[in-house]
Amino acid sequence: MKFPLVISSDGKVKLMNEGKIIDAEGLVDLTYWSNKPNIEQVELHGSADILHYRDGKLIDSRHLDNLIVNVGIALLAGLTDGSATAYINAMALGTGTTAAASTDTALETEVIRVATTNALVTTTVTNDTAQFTGSFSFTASYAITEEGLFNSTTASSGTMLSHMVFAAVNVVSGDSIQYIHKIQF
Q: Measuring CA to CA, which residue among 39, 65, 74, 95 is closest to residue 181?
């Protein structure tokens, strides 16, 4: 899912809603219409590759799109203006099955969280994509159905950037999942 953001010449991040620029207070910003040359539109797109291994062999792989949640958009805006300092450093998996919603702030049923390895990679222009890689090892059986990115490695805490719910990846003890999550700007 793509979310249009506008960065104005004064560096403030604003949301675009039905062709109108909405400021932090939810008011239409009329300066947009008289100052268009000083604004660029940024769209976010999240996707992930899930690689499921058993006995060292790849048994399932999937490529899925995800949802950037409202608190995640606010986190990115805060990182841009310096009011937020905790960057995305963790990924969690869970067994919840309720569809992801823009108002989500946590996984429905988190079962495991790991620190991520982060990098900037090139999709369209140099370093336009943040890549988060999480490696999970399982000691029990689960039907993994959801994933989220967070700015805390502590289970069930921190601010969520994105959430995705998908058909079950059935893991058993000894299985591993490598999850490569990308957010393209």
A: 65
**Is residue 158 included in any domain, yes or no?**
yes
Q: What is the DSSP letter of 57?
A: E
Residue 29, in any domain of the structure: no
Name all contacts of 53-56 with Cβ < 8 Å and 24+ positions apart. 53/175, 53/176, 53/177, 53/178, 54/172, 54/174, 54/175, 55/174
CA distance 183 to 163: 12
Q: Is residue 92 part of a domain?
A: yes
Sign of CA dihedral 171, 173, 176, 181: positive
Kindly give the residue spans of alpha helices, DSSP state H, lying in the chain. Answer: 31-34, 70-81
| Domain ranges, residue 135 | 44-184
Q: Could you report the per-residue pLDDT of 136-177, keeping only the tens digit for each?
A: 999 999 999 999 999 999 999 999 999 999 999 999 999 999
The answer to whether the Cα torsion of 73, 76, 80, 84 is positive or negative is positive
Sheet with 160-171: list strands edge to edge.
67-68, 160-171, 142-150, 90-94, 110-115
CA-based torsion, 55, 145, 112, 51: positive or negative: positive
